[in-house]
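job 3f2a | input accepted
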Amino acid sequence: MTLFKYIINPSPIGEITIIWRKKPKFQIEEIILSKPDKSSSRIAEEKYEQEDKLPINKKSKQLNNVLRELDNYFQEKDARFSLEYLNLDKFTPFQRKVLETEFKTKKGTINTYKDLAKAAGSPKAYRSVGTALSKNPYPIIIPCHRTVKSDRTIGGFGGVAEGLESKKILLELDGLMIQDKKVVGDSPIIALDKTSQTKLV
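job 3f2a | predicted structure (201 res):
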């Protein structure tokens, strides 16, 4: 099964590399975000291209649909993402439940690791929730950036503290206000829009 890659550059959070396949059906293998010290294309090279370079920028109708929705998201428009093109079968039942539950987190809202554990049916498994989200191969589509700590500090992103700036940018694209690495709002669950949040400052 041949893998392809598509590189989005620029974006509000830097270069993004999408690894995808078109056979036996179109499927996104991974969405790779850049780190402060390493570009997404370099990460993809180290992970997927040890033997041969992946064909680059080979488009398909389904990929174009995903790219259009990502563009809508980055332009702060409504984006209609779908789980249809994601391979969730490679996860444990619990991890899959966490990711599917996170997918339902609406733009402009946040949840905590404890909230997500409870919604996924395992209230005490919030540490496992953090592990599952850190391994999320589909950031933005499955919006793991919307899960924050109980005190509303935004924590790390992609399993590393260095992802903090990208997480902040994504939350701001969602319409939330971040101050001192914390989401400003009247609730740890439902955050206010920017206009309402400003009144709290």
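job 3f2a | Helices lie at 40-48, 61-74, 93-103, 113-119, 126-134, 164-173, 194-198.
job 3f2a | closed
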